[in-house]
Amino acid sequence: MSILTPAAGERNSRREANRRQRSLILGRSRLARGGAMTVLVVMALGWLFPLIWATNSSFRTEADTVALPLQWIPENGFTLEQYIGLFEVGKVQLWMTNSLIIAVAVTAITVAVSALAAYAFSRMVFRGRKALFALTIAAIMVPPQLLIIPLFDQMVALNLVDTYAAIILPQVVAPIMVFILKKFFDGIPRELEEAARMDGAGPWRVFFSVVLPLSRPILAAVSIFVFINAWNNFLWPFIVTTDPSLMTLPVGIPNVLDAYGTVYARNMASSMVAAAPMIVVFLLFQRRIVRSVATTGLGGQ
Amino acid sequence: MTATAPPRDRAPAGPPPAARSAPPLWRRVSDSGWAFLLPFLAVFAAFMGWPVVYGFWLSLTDSTLVRTGGDFVGLANYAEALGDPLMWQTLGNTAFFTLASTVPLVVLALVMAVLVHSGLPGQWLWRLSFFVPYLLPVATVGLVGQFMFNQEIGVLNQATGADVGWLSEDSVALWSIVIATVWWTVGFNFLLYLAALQSIPDHLYEAASIDGAGAWARLWSITLPQLSRITGVVLVLQLLSSLKVFDQIYLLMGNNPTDATRSILIYVYDTGFTGYRLGYGSALSYIFLAIVVAVALVQTWVGSRRNKGAAA
């Protein structure tokens, strides 16, 4: 870990590390440095442009958004009218609340259920453990998207269509997270747990007061990853909700727009509102998120 | 030992609680592995195991959304699927999308990660630019895409002076969807590569610089070879996620994809939820599942062969 030194929190040492990194990887050549920088700037501009353009367009009147030729500064100046209109309708706040409730519930349940199972697979001895773990691994290959038809039919049979439960429950099955957590638990030295056992602690006590505190980083990583996916999930919530008051942001926004016809400035405003929460969260926890996506993603190997 | 002060890195030193005799039955059950496993097993059985089995049963019946529990028809749905030109077309679209998106999604992610990892100033900004689109909900991707790809007022045509129907021309639309997808999801692969780059030991580069190797030589003789393992991982994850494409096609095409842009998963959805044919839709799902599993197994096999080859 060359960039993430223990002192990574300090700006100066980071700068120093970057400088070292630069000379290690690019050497002293001006051409290499200049070339790399140019490509980086061009690509970053290309990647940021759609967001900049969409944000810019969301602060315009509809007429200015579609006025040709396109201009960076609209003729009638920037305005908040799209956002005000959007929030006056009131659905967006509702969907954001739904998204939050659902994503938090999915994350909490998934992490709890997966961590317990992973601990059982990692440490406990019982009949059928190997077979069940093999089944869990095999299930990683089954894309949940392929189960939409039987799952929907099941929800109809259980009379759960248009409930939070129907949106949440099928999302909490995450065999890949069980696998990642089990790998982590396997790496914790057994001595700590054995010492706690000697003191008379049962497996639950050991799990909650010895293992979990040691697993905070991986639990954070898994939670962040599950949360991002739950927050942005589209297909399943889209299938199982028809009631607009239960929709999540990704489902509700394109849905309501259909009813109004295409209104580009308003579309861009709703796009930005839908995108904002995750972007703010990212700006606050950049390092942590970057690390967790890397850990959980790599766990997939 | 108290629950409020969990020991972090040393064994708990508190006094042991009163010694216990043989634990009662409920205690033995609750302390066994099964108790820890139970919650996961319950959701797994209900929302994965059962749908897999039930879906297979459905695929052998002529069930519809209005009349479930249809009659057993054997393999008739599968036979129909094999002769269904729309299934082959949507499978073809899916294969095209998978290949066309996987290549840039791996290559561009690698380029981005190598450039960012070189330690040039502005780390925070680069990571932000490349990764933030990955955090966008697909609704945003769909709306911004429609806006920018629009033939009359879209910024793409306006800025380049072209007159392309990015989403309205059948021959172009799938490419536009690929472009939007690359923009949206490359950040994930970028992070995987970045993490892998950070684990390359510095001494390799130090040795190279003593040998007088320039930046280009370092890239080809150290960085890229060190990344071959992670490239395998990125490739598998990407292939599997590209095969499952649904959301961005559906939304970019305004909830109404043409036959030229429908993926197999969209065809499954249309068959089951618009056409109400649950039985036939399930059969299509199972054909597709077979393909996904085959791709995963081939990848695993290739990966293990390559690892063996490297070890030999």
TrEMBL record, chain A:
A biological process (GO) of this protein is: transmembrane transport
Keywords carried by this UniProt record? Cell membrane, Membrane, Transmembrane, Transmembrane helix, Transport
Q: Which organism is it from?
A: Murinocardiopsis flavida
What residues does the ABC transmembrane type-1 domain cover? 96-285
Report the membrane topology from the UniProt record. Answer: Multi-pass membrane protein
Ranges that cross the membrane: 31-53, 100-120, 132-152, 164-185, 206-228, 264-285
Key word Transmembrane present: yes
Family assignment from sequence similarity:
Belongs to the binding-protein-dependent transport system permease family.
- Major place of residence: membrane
InterPro entries per the record?
MetI-like, MetI-like_sf
* Name of the protein in its database record: Carbohydrate ABC transporter membrane protein 2 (CUT1 family)
**Which superkingdom heads the taxonomic lineage of this protein's source?**
Bacteria
Record keyword Transmembrane helix present: yes
User: Lineage from the top down?
Assistant: Bacteria, Bacillati, Actinomycetota, Actinomycetes, Streptosporangiales
Q: State a GO cellular component annotated for this protein.
A: plasma membrane
Subcellular locations according to the entry: Cell membrane
Q: Which Pfam families match?
A: BPD_transp_1 (PF00528)
TrEMBL record, chain B:
Family listed: Belongs to the binding-protein-dependent transport system permease family.
Q: Give yes or no: UniProt keyword Ion transport.
A: no
Task: Provide the ABC transmembrane type-1 domain boundaries.
Answer: 91-299
Record membrane topology: Multi-pass membrane protein
**One record GO biological process:** transmembrane transport
- Source species, domain of life: Bacteria
Instruction: State the InterPro entries in the record.
Output: ABC_transporter_permease, MetI-like, MetI-like_sf
Going by the UniProt record, its keywords in alphabetical order are: Cell membrane, Membrane, Transmembrane, Transmembrane helix, Transport
Subcellular location as annotated: Cell membrane
Q: Name one Pfam family in it.
A: BPD_transp_1
Membrane-spanning regions, if any? 34-57, 95-116, 128-149, 172-195, 283-302
Its name, as the record gives it, is Carbohydrate ABC transporter membrane protein 1 (CUT1 family)
Region feature Disordered, mapped onto this chain: 1-22
Gene Ontology CC annotations of this record: plasma membrane
Whether Transmembrane counts among this entry's keywords is yes
List the SUPFAM superfamilies hit by this protein, alphabetically: MetI-like
